[in-house]
Amino acid sequence: MSPSNHYDVIIIGTGAGGGTLAHALAPSGKRILLLERGDFVPRERENWDPRAAITEGRYHAKDTWYDKGGRAFQPGTHYNVGGNTKFYGASLWRLRAEDFGELKHHGGISPAWPISYDEMEPWYALAEQLYCVHGDRGADPTEPPATGPYPYPAMSFEPRLQRLYDDLIRVGHKPFHGPVGVQIDEQNPRTSACIRCAACDGFPCLVNAKADADLRCVRPAIARENVTLLTHALVTRLETAPSGREVTKVVVTRDGEPEQYSADFVVVSGGAINSAVLLLRSANEQHPDGLANGSGLVGRHYMCHNNSMLVALSKEKNDTRFQKNFALNDFYFGEDGFPYPMGCIQMMGHAHPEVLGEGAPKTTPRKILELMATHGMPFWLISEDLPDPENRVALGPKGEVRLLYRDNNLEGHKRLHRKLKGLLAEIGCEE
Question: Which residue, 101, 162, 354, 398, has fewest beta-carbon neighbours within 10 Å?
């Protein structure tokens, strides 16, 4: 292997993990190689086109994966510089302090982390600064301790969302401005990068105002001479020394041609699924079940939350463009009579008919979707699932990706649904 192909550090993946790490290491002067299987998301009119971005999946990965029943599906992930952060709704939350310890759920135990919230707090503060987080420290009743305020003031509610906030306060609840990572200056809208559009959650930002790993981390890193980014670089395998104790080659397919690289440190940061897939596909004589898999745990205990959407219809039109800054955590840890975590209530991004159509039954008439888009209040409910060892990422007989998953710990999520429906009925909205 050519000496020019050896680096101090190779980082596989440029999303939230890999991109942030590259940003942190870049000032060290170490020779760093970033490997990204995709390319930069093009800046084009389709960035903000709901049909192109959502219905047609213009930017989605073209992979085919298989579920526990062997049924093929196209994953909703993205292969590009910045990873899924190019398409996220810019909600950037700290875990609660209790989340780092053992938590009893209705469906079982969520085990403790090997680190504490106090150890993570300084790094949360740095990450909030890096990703331009706007919020209102102390407004969330479940918020963990922090050493200082959010770097930027909370993003204001638009009129319809403000009335929802006021209505929930009136009936005794504690909604708040959720933390969002957007580059907005509401005091100077003429020069603000963010224009508060209706195409943030699920869309790439055409005006480069979303705080994603590409804009905030990768581009500043590759501006340095010591950091190199290779796009269209699919890492297919990690090869080890005969002892099996160190990675000696990173095998890449780039534009259809094989390439090899090496480094003193190799960081696998391809996301929960593709990182496991790479390690499993790198099995060799010393590691017959995959690299780092002597325990058999690589790919196991896969978690993806219990997520659902609830759209409430209001007699009043909802003209809100940016809704991801609204949240309610009153039932995060349960309620009287149910001492188990239930989860977080947030708003979705702007309710385009195309977005709603992705979650609604396929037979839902277009007119109903349009009514939901104009008069709907779209809520996103998130509850914790549990680390079941049978929920796992695996390889099929031909090396295909299999995502074996079954729902668990659903009682808290069902109760969260019922609580939200009751609150909405009390303030005059209907599901």
Answer: 398
